[in-house]
Amino acid sequence: MPIVKVIEIIASSEKSLDDAIRNAVTEVSKTIHNVDSVYVKDIKVHVKDGKITTFGCICKVSFRLDEAHR
Question: pLDDT-derived band of residue 15, with 50, 70 and 90 as boundaries?
């Protein structure tokens, strides 16, 4: 039976929420292997002068542990 671990990360983008989520996957995949899914737990935006400046999200990332790390 595979063991799955879940971590929580914060991601952001100046372009869009979609881009923030993609940034989360890209960054976490640099150090964590076997990423299975990303659950977006919370969303927020920063606003300046009535305009959105940054999109952000808190993500729960699920990944399978390698046999050697169990």
Answer: very high
CA distance readout (Å), 21 to 24, 48, 50: 5, 22, 24
From residue 43, give the alpha-carbon distance in Å to each of 2, 17, 18, 40, 69: 30, 8, 11, 7, 32
Regarding pTM above 0.85, the answer is no
Residue 67 backbone phi and psi in degrees, to 5: -55, -40
E strands within 1-70? 4-13, 35-48, 51-64
Q: What does the pLDDT read at residue 1?
A: 78
8-state DSSP, 14: S
